[in-house]
């Protein structure tokens, strides 16, 4: 009888272990990145009472810009003010928390004993945290050329998003900074705001780049002529600020920056504002370390529903993902979308685990009952035999 009892005890233990498919972690979700995308995730999950922590390294792509635009209800709000108000509003959700530190690494962990997996994050101080899911809102950095004066004016009269900053400089003399292949795209985006446009191609007007531009816009020369766009291919030596638009505004919100572009030949041109076409890079090394599939140096979320990445349990929101838009409304939308999908995915896991555990418990109870009934029947049969022998 002992081996049989041992078997049932082991079965019961294994049943409970297999049913416990929800890992015991510090948090349901770890969000990396404290910009609009990460804040939107935190808010969404907080409203569903998910235990969520957001890590904020204090690095933001729009951190240097004067103010946000095209953000309904917050038009003209400085980014820092927006983030502060968002944090204040989210703080009422007791299941959320914010830690102002950089996350250095995230590692997937397989827990075979519990039939589950989770993530372990380590911050810059070496402190470890675990969660069931991870949302990356780590953003991009603009790869700005080493031109004196350019970085100092970044986000303050020199910008990359016409929806974010173009209207405040409407009808002013515009410059386009970047390679020749991107000139027509910038004109298409801005010609309703500007009529005086010069593209400063900085030596990139070459036969090879003409071919590259013609591949995208076969009639590119006619298009530039139609919009009266000039091209200046001289090499840029520096960009000098002559006037700060932050101090020179009108009642309609127009900002009057003035810059002088100095060329290596000693000549110069004055422009009020610039749209730029410079490459971007992932701010964080986490996507690479997690071996996430990338598209054009952005985390691929194209073929994965709800901002999911190629790694199960990891989501990507905001500028760092591949859905092709880089602005605050997009960041908030993608964060909200991820928050919904993360919550629902965890709910499905919890439901499946509850059903599984209940099923295992039922089976264990059946086996236990079978064993108990079996033992009682065996004892009864023994007593019947003993009585029979006595009578014989």
TrEMBL record:
InterPro entries: FAD/NAD-bd_sf, FAD/NAD-binding_dom, Ferredoxin-NADP_redctase_2. Residues 1-19 form the signal peptide. The keyword Oxidoreductase applies. The keyword Membrane does not apply. One of its GO terms (molecular function) is oxidoreductase activity. Residues 27-179 form the FAD/NAD(P)-binding domain. Belongs to the class-II pyridine nucleotide-disulfide oxidoreductase family. This is FAD/NAD(P)-binding domain-containing protein.
């Amino acid at each position: 009888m002992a081996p049989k009892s041992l078997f049932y005890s082991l079965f019961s233990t294994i049943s409970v272990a297999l049913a416990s498919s929800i890992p015991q972690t510090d948090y349901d979700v770890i969000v990396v990145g404290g910009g609009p995308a990460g804040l939107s995730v935190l808010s969404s999950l907080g409203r569903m009472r998910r235990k969520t922590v957001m890590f904020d390294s204090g690095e933001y792509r729009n951190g240097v810009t004067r103010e946000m635009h095209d953000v309904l209800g917050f038009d003209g709000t400085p980014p820092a003010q927006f983030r502060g108000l968002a944090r204040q509003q989210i703080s009422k959700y007791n299941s959320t928390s914010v830690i102002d530190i950089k996350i250095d690494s995230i590692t997937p962990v397989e827990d075979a004993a519990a039939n589950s997996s989770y993530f372990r994050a380590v911050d810059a101080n070496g402190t470890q945290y675990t969660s069931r899911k991870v949302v990356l809102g780590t953003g991009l950095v603009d790869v700005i050329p080493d031109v004196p004066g350019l970085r100092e004016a970044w986000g303050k009269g020199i910008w990359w998003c016409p929806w974010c900053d173009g209207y405040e400089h409407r009808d002013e003399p515009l410059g386009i900074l970047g390679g020749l292949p991107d000139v027509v795209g910038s004109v298409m985006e801005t010609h309703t705001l500007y009529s005086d446009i010069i593209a400063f191609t900085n030596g990139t007007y070459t036969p090879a780049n003409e071919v590259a531009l013609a591949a995208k816009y076969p009639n590119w020369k006619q298009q530039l002529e139609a919009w009266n766009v000039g091209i200046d291919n001289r090499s840029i030596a520096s960009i000098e600020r002559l006037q700060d638009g932050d101090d020179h505004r009108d009642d309609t919100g127009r900002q009057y920056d003035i810059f002088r572009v100095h060329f290596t030949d000693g000549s110069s041109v004055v422009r009020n504002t610039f749209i730029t076409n410079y490459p971007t890079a992932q701010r964080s090394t986490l996507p690479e370390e997690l071996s996430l599939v990338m598209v054009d140096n952005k985390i691929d979320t194209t073929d994965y529903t709800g901002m999911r990445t190629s790694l199960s349990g990891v989501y990507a929101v905001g500028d760092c993902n591949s859905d092709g838009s880089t602005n605050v409304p997009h960041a908030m939308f993608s964060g909200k979308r991820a928050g919904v999908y993360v919550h629902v995915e965890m709910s499905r896991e919890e439901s499946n685990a509850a059903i599984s555990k209940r099923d295992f418990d039922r089976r264990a109870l059946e086996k236990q009952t079978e064993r108990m009934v079996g033992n009682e029947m065996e004892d009864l049969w023994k007593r019947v035999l003993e009585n029979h022998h006595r009578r014989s």
